[in-house]
Amino acid sequence: MSQAAAAIPQKLFFKIGEVCELAGVQAHVLRYWETEFPMLAPQKNRAGQRTYRRRDVEMALRIKELLYDEQYTIAGAKKKLAGEIRGAGRETSDAPQAKAPVRSLQPPPSLAARFSSAPAPVPAPPSPAPELTSDQRASLKQIAEQLQDILDLLDEGDKAREELRSHDEN
Q: Angle at CA 64, nearest 5°, toward 156 and 149?
């Protein structure tokens, strides 16, 4: 991992201003790179704002390194990145291609095993749900929207990987 990638904060999502600060470029430069480099494709949230994931930030840093430090042209940097991505893909190409994971609300096996050995709890009689304050309801609604955004991003990432696989196969 490069030194710049190590300096990326441990967050799920970054706003364009945060990525600009990390990469040391202005927002219009990042937006231009998105048009030139298909591998830099941040998702947009419901408000239409770009949400960069860690791999997007790493890609922006790599693009900057190629263009600014190694003095590649845009075309040369595209070619170099495509080769790096293909090279990384070949390392795992011997493994059988797995289908996209199905999102489930079931706990992962590691958690399910912890709870399966314990006797099943006796269900308590239903009790009325506690009244929530308007602040609590608003917070829960915001969390639900953020979780839905995460699920949408995961689904879009799965679709993008499938498109890349089918494109690479052709």
A: 20
Q: Which residue has the higher pLDDT, 14 or 90?
A: 14
**19-65 confidence digits (pLDDT tens):** 999 999 999 999 999 999 999 999 998 998 999 999 999 999 999 99
The DSSP result for 62-88, as a single string, is: HHHIIIIIS---HHHHHHHHHHHHHHH
For domain 11-91, is the CATH number 1.10.1660.10?
yes
Q: What is the pLDDT of residues 83-121, one digit of tens each?
A: 888 887 665 544 444 444 455 555 555 555 555 555 556
User: How distant, in Å, are the alpha carbons of 15, 68, 102, 140, 154 from that of 144?
Assistant: 20, 41, 20, 6, 15
39 Cβ neighbours under 8 A, 6+ residues apart: 59, 81, 82, 85
Q: Quick one: pLDDT at residue 118?
A: 54
* Size of the chain, expressed as the number of residues it contains: 170
HSE of 13 in the Cβ direction (CA atoms, 13 Å)?
14
The ranges assigned to domains in the chain are 11-91
Nearest to 60 by CA among 103, 16, 119: 16
